[in-house]
C-alpha cells in the first residue's frame, strides 16, 4: 500500500460511482441553464478579507472553518468556503452589474470548510450554485427556488422538503433582534448560549437541545416582526411558488450559517440523511454587494450540495445517469483480430459509440469478464476463424444472445443493433 492517503474528510469518486456524481451535477446545472443562467469559472482561493467581510466575521465558517494561509508573497488567501462572495467580487470587478440586469450566473465546483468530518460532512464539498443579481423581484426568488426543486425532481428524488422563511432586512431586523435579545436575557441559559445571544441571537433559536427548545417555545419570531415591505415580498414569493407548483413548508426558526441573508431564505432538507440533512440552501442577500464595495444592488441565489444529493439518491435507490463506461466492448483473439478491432473501435467512436477493447492479449474468459464489468451492452468478439470468414460475433451481454456480423459492414451493424442511425 502507498504511504500516501488523501487528506481527511474528502470524498473521492471513481467509476462506476463517479458517473452518478457527474450525472447529479449535470442535472442540477441543467435546471439552471434552462432558466437562462450563464456559467462562471472563478478562483478556488481569494483574498481572506473577501470571505471575512462577505460571509460574516462572527460565523462558524469564518471563525473556525476557513483554510487560510499566506502565499509566497505573504498575502493571506483562503480556499473558498462558499461561492456567493466570490461571484459578487467578480461581478463588481468586471462591471457585469453595469450591463443588463439581473445578472444570472451559475457555478459548480469544490468548496472547502475545515469541519469535523462525518457522513455527509466533508472538508472538500462540491456545490452547484446560482446567483441572480440586481433585481429585487419576488418572482426571481421563486425562480431560484424552483430551479433547485426542478433539479432534485429531475434526479428522481422525492424524500425531501423545502423550508422557507423571511429574515427581514435592515428596516425591521434590528428591532426584532433587540426584542429577541431581551427575551433571551431573561432565560436561565448557560454561559456559552448567553454569549451567543449577545453576538448572534438568531442562532440561539436553532439550538437542538430539548430543554433549551422548551425555553424558546415562546420566543418572538422574525416573521411576526417583518416590515410591511418585507411581509409583502414574502407573501409574493409564496404566491409565485404556489403558482410554480413548488411545495414548501414555513420554518420561522430557520437559521442559516452565513450572515449575508435578508428577506427570503430557504433550505432543502432530506429526511434520509441523518444529521447532515441539508441538501441545499440559499436566499436573498440585498446588502452584500454594497458591503463588498459595489453598488447597492440586491441578489438571490442558492448552493446545492452535490455530495449530499448523491447520498440522497443512494438512500432513495435512485440511480442518476448511466454508470456503463461503454456501449460496446471489443474482444480480439489473436494479433490479426486485434488490428482489425482497434481500427473498428476508432470508426465506431467517430460515430459517437462508446467503445472499449480488451488490451493486453487477455484470453476469452478474462476478456468477457472485463466486458461484463465495463457495463457494455454488447461484446464484439473476433477470433481467428471469424476473421477467416470475414465475421465478428456480436453478443448481447444481458441475454447471452449472439449473432454473426460481416466485418466489412460492422459499423452499420453495430449502430443498428444499438438502435442508432446507420446512415
Ligand atoms: P450553505 O448552506 O453553507 O450555503 O451550503 C449549501 C449546501 O452545501 C448545503 O445545503 C449542503 O448541502 C452543502 N454543504 C455545505 N457544507 C458542507 C459540508 N461540509 N459537506 C458536505 N456538504 C456541505 C452556501 O454555501 C451559500 N453560498 C448558498 C447561497 C448562494 N446563498 C445564496 N447564494
UniProtKB/TrEMBL annotation:
Domain Aminoacyl-transfer RNA synthetases class-II family profile: 23-312
Name of the coding gene: hisS
EC number: 6.1.1.21
UniProt family annotation: Belongs to the class-II aminoacyl-tRNA synthetase family.
A Pfam family recorded for this sequence: HGTP_anticodon
Keyword Glycoprotein listed: no
Species, as recorded: Longimycelium tulufanense
Protein name stated in the entry: Histidine--tRNA ligase
Location in the cell: Cytoplasm
